[in-house]
Design brief:
It is built from nine helices and twelve strands. It has 293 residues and is α/β, with parallel strands linked by helices. It has one domain: TIM Barrel (Alpha-Beta Barrel), CATH 3.20.20. The protein is globular, with a radius of gyration of 18 Å. This is LLM class F420-dependent oxidoreductase.
Length: 293
Amino acid sequence: MKVRFGVGLGPDVTPDQLPAMIDRLEASGVDSLWFSELVYSPAVDPFVGMTYALARTARLKVGTSVAVLPGRHPVLVAKQLASLAALAPKRVLPVFGLRSALPAERDAFVVPDGRRAAVFDESLRLLRAALDEDSVTFRGDFFSVRDVAVLPKPPSRLDIWLGGASQAGFERIGRFADGWLGSFVTPYEAGDAVAAIREAAAAAGREVPADHYGINLAVGEGELPAPVLDAIRRRRPDLDPGELVARDWPALHRQIDGFLEAGLTKFVIRPAGGIGLQRFVDSFVTELLPREN
């Protein structure tokens, strides 16, 4: 199976830094670039960022890590994805999640109270139908559309991956999605996630490809800054932060080894506070490209 590494962008990467970085990734042969959904930050919107990166490159893949789907109309999302895939075939890698990780941003994605998971499931069904079918009439609990014809159709099937780290999320991936991009889990937990997704897919009469399991990881440059440690502890108070975020590149390599053993083959690596962007990209190219197969 192909092992691939992509660069993830965090909240500190500003628009003026993107042109030189994208050019460097393209010239260095880096597989992919991933834009996070960070509404209240200087980071660019993931769909805008993907469009800009695709227009500036000829081979670099781009993805979202992750964009929120509930609160967006799935037909309009399908149109955006189909348009990007037509302009840059086989280079668009959408990953969606249930909600923003940041509580302050959740109000921007409006869904009925207590129904976010149900909206997500229905959104995924309609998104898939709009991408694949020539004409869609759909009546659900949250969306009703008629004679939907999203054009142009992607030249090849567009895979939809999901994030998430709960049993309900793994079951959703098994029922509706084509892959998993996890975060804030250990290799042992990732192995359990792969098993749960495969079981859910089999129960739904589906199969998630064996090379469609990935993880979003962060790497520091020595001791991790206190704000980074605090953020990790808030997210996973049950674990030592060092189990989730690598303090340096040797620690990251050990984490990658563990995730490979757990069955993951796709990695999105982002800087963990304090690393200059240029230095991070230089180290990424040196450390990780030789690990691809």
